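Could you help me review a protein record that somebody else here produced? Here is the record exactly as it was handed to me:
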Amino acid sequence: LNYESPMLRNPLKVEKNKQFFFGLASKGLYVTAEIPLTGFVCGQQVPLSINVNNESNVEVTEIAVELVKFIHYNSEMPRRKTRERIEHTPVIQCAGVPVKSKFSVKTTMLIPAVPPTTVGTCRILSHFYEIHVVAKTGAFHRDAVLRLPITIGTVPLFASQTGLYQQNQAPANLYPQVI
């Protein structure tokens, strides 16, 4: 991660405004999600801040956070073809947000043991990841989905001045020692 783009050290904030119409205009559902950087390793905690302002007449039944892995398989023979496979890993589920109310939460999400991001390093296979924050609104409405693209590597980001790991934490030991 330290040799990748310096943009991995920048915070990412995504906002979504969803309007519901029932023949009459109603106020909207405003959802924001923020992470302090976009480069992580397996076993690292991702600090996540979620704010929901439900000014609509539609209840949000649940707020869910999931890690989504996109896998692209590319072939060039006999013809050029790409297949995409998507894997969802639910990580956090929060309570819903009633009509005309607000909800705010700061939580952490653990990055599970997954292969590192491989966009552009291999012509045949590529992996990339997104954190999805989903405000579920029920059967008759589409859910509000916020997509936060992240990069997963093998070595954590170092802070530029101190030489310490970002957020002062090393990745968790995913392989316990056998005695």
Summary: The first strand starts at residue 12 and ends at 18. Residues 161-179 have pLDDT under 50 and may be disordered.
